[in-house]
Design a protein that fits this description.
two-stranded antiparallel ribbon; binds iron/sulfur cluster; two-stranded antiparallel sheet
Length: 137
Amino acid sequence: MQFCRRPGWWTVDEAEAVVRAGLAERMMLELSPDRSYGVLSPAFRGCECLYAVQEYSKYGCTFLLHGRCDLHGSGKMPLECRFCHHDRRGQGEICHAALEQDWNTPAGQALVERWQRLTGFWKRGINLRMRDTLKSL
Ligand code: SF4
């Protein structure tokens, strides 16, 4: 549960299946440190369909309900949650880096764009303000 304060990441293929399952509105968009690519991840509670912003991180993952993962057993739990944090203890950074590489691809960024269209991401004022802030940094 400690890991659920910082939601784990899906692979691109997993995230696509989650979008197809109708859960796009439970995701948020994380940006790489250099802001060159994005990653769709389970949202912080209250941060659904928004950029991942620090203010919401204290609320933890939107799929954590009553101390349990709502995705457990559904086949939709992110690889980083079910595998990297448990079966590969101590190798979290390597696992996370591999997931970053998976997202930093044409397929990964095409899915981000599709998700943005599907959820009306750019129609949310907070995202536009965040984009302007990021541009000015
Ligand atoms: S998807 Fe499930 S296991 Fe992963 S961070 Fe969210 S609640 Fe925790």
